Amino acid sequence: MSQARLMDGTALARRIVERTAHRAAELTSRTGVRPCLATVLVGEDPASVTYVRMKQNRCRTANIASRHVELPAETTTARLVRTLRDLSADPSVHGILLQHPVGDHIDERAAFEAIAAEKDVDGVTFASFATMSFALPGFVSCTPGGIMRLLDAYDVDPAGKRAVVVGRSAILGKPVGMLLLARDATVTYCHSRTRELSSVVREADIVVAAAGRPRLVRGEDVKPGAVVIDAGYNAGNVGDVDFATAVERASLITPVPGGVGPMTIATLLEQTVDAAARQLAG
Ligand SMILES: Nc1nc2c(c(=O)[nH]1)N[C@@H](CN(C=O)c1ccc(C(=O)N[C@@H](CCC(=O)O)C(=O)O)cc1)CN2
Question: Where does the Tetrahydrofolate dehydrogenase/cyclohydrolase NAD(P)-binding domain start and stop, copy by copy (predicted)?
C-alpha cells in the first residue's frame, strides 16, 4: 500500500487566518472597534508560555488586539474566577482564553464557567459543550473544531464511519467525539481504563489520538486506509501517533508539527472575530 497523504494544517490555517484578518479589518473600519482577545495565563509553564505567545503573535497577523493577564502560579480559584468575571464584564474584550493547564490546586472547571458564554471563543464552558453536542450555533473547542475543518477540507465525511477517539479530556477528547457524533459517525471513546486498546483502534475508519501519550498509536494499530488525526502536543513536538509506521497504513494523516496545532489557533482567531461581530451588532 502507498504512503498516506498528509493533511496540511499549516496551509489550511494560513488561509483561515488570512480570511479572519480581512473580516477583522472590515469590522474595525465599519464600527471603529478592533476585535480583542484576552489571554489569561496562570504560572510559568514553558509550553503554556509558548502557546500563549503564539496566540498573541497570530492575533497581530489577524488584525485582532490582544490583552494579556499573567497570574502567579499560587493564584487561588477565587482570584482566577474574579479575573475572568471582570474580563467577561468588560465591553472592550470580545473573547477570553484561559490557558490550560492552570495547576492542580485550582478548580479549572469553576474558572472556565466564569467565562461569559458569548466570549467563550475557546469553547471550554458547559454552554459551549452543549451547543457543540447538539450542532447548534455557538463556539466549538478550538482543537476539535480545527480537526473537523481538516476533515472537511480533505473530503472526509464522518457520516456512517467508525470513529475512535483515544482520550477523554474536557477540551479535546470529549468534544471531538461529540462533534463527530453530530456528523453521524459511530463514535467510541478509549481512555486509560480501556482494555485491548489496539484492537479497538484497529476497527476505526477515523482515529483521533488525543491522549497526551507520545507515539501511543502505532502503525500496526491502524486499519489500512484509515484517516489518522494526531492531536497530541507532547514535549519536543512529538504527537500521540507513531508517524513513521502509521503513515504506511493510513490513507490520510496529520503530521506533528503542521497538522492539528495550527488549526487550533486559527479556530480561536476566527471565533474571536465571530464573537466581536455578534457583540458589536448588539
Ligand atoms: N485553553 C486552552 N488550553 C490549551 C489548548 C487549547 O486549545 N485551549 N490546547 C493545548 C495547546 N495549544 C494551545 O493552547 C497548542 C498546542 C500546539 C499548537 C501548535 O500550533 N503546535 C505547532 C508546533 C509548535 C511549535 O513549533 O513549537 C504544530 O503542531 O505545528 C498550538 C496550540 C493545551 N492547552
Answer: 141-279
Going by CA atoms, what residue is nearest to atom 11 of ligand 1? 51
**Whether 146 and 237 share a structural domain:** yes
Residue at 102 is within a domain: yes
CATH number at residue 188: 3.40.50.720
Write the CATH number for 44: 3.40.50.10860
CA dist., res. 199 & res. 157, Å (int): 23
Q: Which active-site residues does the annotation give?
A: 55, 99, 122
Spell out the per-residue pLDDT of the chain, length 282, in tens.
Answer: 689 999 999 999 999 999 999 999 999 999 999 999 999 999 999 999 999 999 999 999 999 999 999 999 999 999 999 999 999 999 999 999 999 999 999 999 999 999 999 999 999 999 999 999 999 999 999 999 999 999 999 999 999 999 999 999 999 999 999 999 999 999 999 999 999 999 999 999 999 999 999 999 999 999 999 999 999 999 999 999 999 999 999 999 999 999 999 999 999 999 999 999 999 997
Residue 169 annotated as part of some ligand binding site? yes
Query: 169 C-alpha to center of ligand 1: Å?
Result: 15
* Residue 167 annotated in ligand binding: yes
Position 58 in a domain: yes
Say which amino acid occupies 134.
F
3 alpha carbon to ligand 1 midpoint, in Å? 27
Instruction: Decide if 14 is inside a domain.
Output: no
CA-closest residue to ligand 1 atom 19: 261
Query: Domain residues for 231?
Result: 141-260
List pocket residues of ligand 1, CB cut-off 6 Å: 51, 97-100, 122, 142-143, 171, 233, 237, 256-258, 261-262, 264-265
Domain-located, residue 270? no
For residue 130, give the C-alpha cell.
452543549
Instruction: Judge if 103 and 145 occupy the same domain.
Output: no
Distance (Å, whole) CA 201 – CA 183: 20
Q: For ligand 1, atom 21, which residue shows the shortest CA distance? A: 261
